[in-house]
Amino acid sequence: MYPSNVRDPKMVRITTEKLASAFIEENVAYLRKEIGNEKVLLALSGGVDSSVVAALLIKAIGKQLTCIHVNHGLMRKGESEQVIDVFQRQLGANLIYVDATDRFLDKLAGVADPEKKRKIIGAEFIRVFDEEASKLSGIKYLGQGTIYPDILESDDGIKSHHNVGGLPEDVKFELVEPVKLLFKDEVRVVGKALGLPDEMVYRQPFPGPGLGVRCVGAITRDRLNALREADAILREEFANAGLDKKVWQYFVIVPDFKTTGISNGKRTFDWPAVIRAVNTKDAMSATVEELDWEFMKKVTFRITHEVPGINRVLYDLTPKPNATIEWE
Ligand code: XMP
């Protein structure tokens, strides 16, 4: 399904509700025709891309769709709970929740290479779906929220996103990727036209491998927890300052090294928390947000005083290029 991986240069950029409605109409018809009476399983991370694919598929095939939310243990604080709440309560989706935290973290233990980490996460994702599918029986298709930058960067060998490069050879599902030729801004316009809530459509993007690519190097549970807590503080302060509506993506990275510090008159040897806040239209290039100094001081104070294991806060000043948005 959706055989072409190349966007026609003449394809009009979807910027209006009218263009989005035309896209939806065309794709709903195509999905109905191609899927027929078969069942589809969807990886529902709660991000914009998979949410839009879910809404499109619900519109096209209704209860033939089963959504699965896998908590890989690399979600942001409170996120899985929110996904369950929004999708079951607001959208009435047929949703299965799987807590696979231990499975993922055990497989990732000691693995420092970013591409290997991505591949492990991608392969484990598919395995979890496979198990759920065999419990459900009769699933033919796997829905995915792949978007165009994922394909371009995967072709360039820049990185293998879990939804493009990490599939094991023996996967028995056929892929359904209705937004794979769209850029992020177009996916949002389509989501809005589909009637998804603003909180979902304008949510900041979050990578499939989650905090896994922000807990740099080999992931440990204590460093991952420190990252999750520091990230929650940053998100809270962004929301308090109204920056959550202004900045495309803002998050914390915790690298795998320690430096000395001092707390309550005692020497500490802890990790730094790196803040990244960037603006972009399509994630192909990005500029750095010029954050207010008082705001930075507040965030620094909170993170260094509230998060065990963190004794410094740094700000990443690098645009894309030369840096990518994520650190891995
Ligand atoms: P980079 O780091 O390549 O990120 O500048 C561009 C955008 O893509 C997101 N990203 C990912 N999304 N799986 C995803 O689904 C991934 O492995 C992945 N890596 C990066 C990143 O957050 C940014 O929005």
What does this structure look like?
The protein is α/β, with parallel strands linked by helices. It folds into 2 domains: 17-201, Rossmann fold (3-Layer(aba) Sandwich); 214-315, GMP Synthetase, Chain A, domain 3 (2-Layer Sandwich). Helices cover 40% and strands 17% of the residues. It has helices at 17-35, 48-61, 79-90, 101-108, 114-136, 148-155, 184-193, 198-201, 221-240, 293-306, and strands at residues 39-43, 65-71, 95-99, 139-143, 174-176, 249-253, 259-263, 266-279, 287-288, 310-315. It has a 5-stranded parallel beta sheet with strand order 3-2-1-4-5, sandwiched between helices. Helix 1 crosses helix 7 and helix 9 (221-240) runs antiparallel to helix 10. It is globular, with a radius of gyration of 20 Å. The structure holds xanthosine-5'-monophosphate (XMP). Residues 118, 161-162, 205, 207-209, 249, 283, 320, 324-326 line the site of xanthosine-5'-monophosphate.
